[in-house]
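okkk here we go again. third time trying to get the NAP bound version out, last two times i messed up the smiles copy paste (missing a bracket lol). double checked this time i swear
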Amino acid sequence: MTHLPVLILGARSDMGQAIAHAFAAQGHPIQLAARNAASLDAVRADLALRHGVEVTLNDFDVLDSDGFAPFLDGLPALPQVAVSVVGYMGDQAENEQELDKASLVLRSNFEGPAGILALLANRFEARGSGTLVGVSSVAGDRGRATNYVYGSAKAGFTAFLSGLRNRLAKKGVHVVTVLPGFVNTAMTEGMDLPEKLTAEPQEVGAAVLKAVQKGRNVIYVRGIWWLVMAIIRNIPEPVFKKLKI
Amino acid sequence: MKLSGWGRFPQVETEVHAPRDEAALRALVTGDRPVIARGNGRSYGDSAVGAGLTLDMRHFNHMLEFDAETGRLVAEAGVLLGDVIDAFLPRGWFPLVTPGTKLITLGGAIAADVHGKNHHVEGSFGACVDWVEIMGPDGEVRRATRKDEDDLFWWTIGGMGLTGVMLRAAIRLRPVETAWIRQTIHPAPDLATAMDLFEAHGHDTYSVAWIDCMGQGRHLGRSLVMLGEHATRAELDPKKAANPLDAGHKGKLSVPLDFPGFALNRWTVRAFNELYYRMGAWNAGMSLVDWDSYFYPLDSVLKWNRIYGRRGFAQFQCVIPLASARDGLTELLQAIADAGAGSFLAVLKRFGPQDSAFSFPMEGYTLALDFPMKAHTLDLLERLDAIAVAHGGRFYLAKDSRMRAETLRQADDRVSEFQEMRKTLGLKAHFASAQSERLSL
Ligand SMILES: Cc1cc2nc3c(=O)[nH]c(=O)nc-3n(C[C@H](O)[C@H](O)[C@H](O)COP(=O)(O)OP(=O)(O)OC[C@H]3O[C@@H](n4cnc5c(N)ncnc54)[C@H](O)[C@@H]3O)c2cc1C
Ligand SMILES: NC(=O)c1ccc[n+]([C@@H]2O[C@H](COP(=O)([O-])OP(=O)(O)OC[C@H]3O[C@@H](n4cnc5c(N)ncnc54)[C@H](OP(=O)(O)O)[C@@H]3O)[C@@H](O)[C@H]2O)c1
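finally!!
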């Protein structure tokens, strides 16, 4: 499948750019989609120069569902691989108090990404090929006091990806769920993250490329996260509800 | 947080920011605290540690334009030299000038005006720079170009980040036919022989000597002089010639933990140096070496600076003008040997002529060594300073972590002009590193 285009939704993010580099290095043309896409011109030039591939900039807002179909129609070609890294954490304290804020988090992490991937899924299904990659989060594996609004949106997105994978399994379309654990990006800048549990965006890029090539279903970028989450999921609720994590 | 350079000494309190775009950078530059740009932190001392804020420039890492006719690359200042090689060596281009590590940014290469093994023919990194875009104290970005009358350009090359924050630059690469270097090693039993070899090979593209600074008496200055040329396609065997611009990729070793302080002492260093010299003498003659092993032998050991333990280490690098080089080097080497101070990485190199506003190189011989930070290290370094100054030498700021302002002033009569320029352009209050404060720049 070399040389078929790869679409990155949320291309301003470090993670999205690292994924773009991983695919571009294999020779894939890249479609970068983001709000205010023109401001990503340096990123476009850099990808094109380093890897000698075609790179386009495409305006995209995950909150504008009416714009989804025209957006897809406006791409240079229907991509072979579409990756959504779109996400928004917001501020938990505000999310608890203000419905609008919580709703923005839910729409940015769940409704929006699910909507655009649903549309892509249908077009991929009609074509009979393609891979969809959704970047969700381990935060969706169990709701915690410190970020359950974001976590629940990711939980919804994870379930959506799982269902989509199930539906399309026999249609030649594959779905990869990425649960990255901590990643050193703009979203986590200034947070004090444990080094061993924190991946660099490039690791995510390499892991997503490999997952697409090998047809993996669910990946944690650093293997240790599987263990961490297995433990967290299995703490009995009477104990869990009293924990501060 | 506490921050240091590659030598891990000194550790200085500073506030680090890593802006992602020009607007964020501008807000930091025009704030009320002085700033200094930081590239990949490969300078050894405190040049890239802010007296107020330290601006990590590594998000500015995009390559913007390349002209395949002329080899001119326009790129952001945080792009690593190694990334330039990865992208353009496969297309037959290589940096015109490269230091002994590829893990540096273009901004760092220009600010320190780094030199390579080809200084005697190509000059320093500034020689390949056509223009730079610099954010000044008012937050405006100015393009400074290689024109006689553009003072900002000439002060910025070698200006150690003290003229503003570089955002972008245009640099010229050199065409190469292969990814291989034809290396010739000449053992030199003493300093005089080593210097004669440099003089005799003034037209070779690359030359550098590893010098055994534990050598005493008739062994003083014992060296391996290593010469190199870019191999042509015709010089490769058929297997390599099939893919001439690809020398393969090697794995990376890493020094996982700090070595205990006692691991490096005069006995281990002496044994290492003895072995290294003998191996070199044994392997003397011509061989083909891949670009990575030839230019960047240390890069394959990640975090090798930890080998010196927690206290870190200090580099010493000076250049002594041609006329007094022989005497100056002899005295320096004698002082080091007397102190029994070990240095694994002692390098001697002949510089060609260079005329610059504030860059380090000038025609003569440069000696670079590192010393683990121990009780008497700072005293020894002061003795070396004095010897260099007495012989008309000067010092490389990218390696310095402890020199006195007075020593710099004595060694370099360009200092007062540099200070004057900083005052006149209103740079002094806005751009300051721990080093510039220590050296009163
Ligand atoms: C193993 C090793 C071998 C080396 N060999 C050599 C050699 O052979 N020859 C040689 O010349 N040097 C050599 N060096 C030194 C190194 O090349 C220089 O210190 C270089 O400046 C490091 O670049 P950096 O990106 O890490 O910059 P930093 O160390 O982060 O910064 C160095 C200086 O550049 C300034 N700077 C960085 N980015 C910008 C910017 N965007 N705008 C304005 N100023 C900026 C900083 O303020 C600082 O003054 C070596 C270093 C190591 C570790
Ligand atoms: N970093 C971590 O530790 C971590 C851990 C687990 C999961 N994740 C997930 O990984 C993904 C990438 O995150 P990141 O760490 O790289 O952080 P990020 O830089 O904040 O990336 C999120 C991206 O989503 C985009 N986005 C938000 N709202 C949008 C909208 N309405 N329309 C279009 N794009 C929108 C943002 O674009 P703008 O720049 O235009 O705002 C931004 O580029 C996210 O889904 C995040 O939830 C991150």
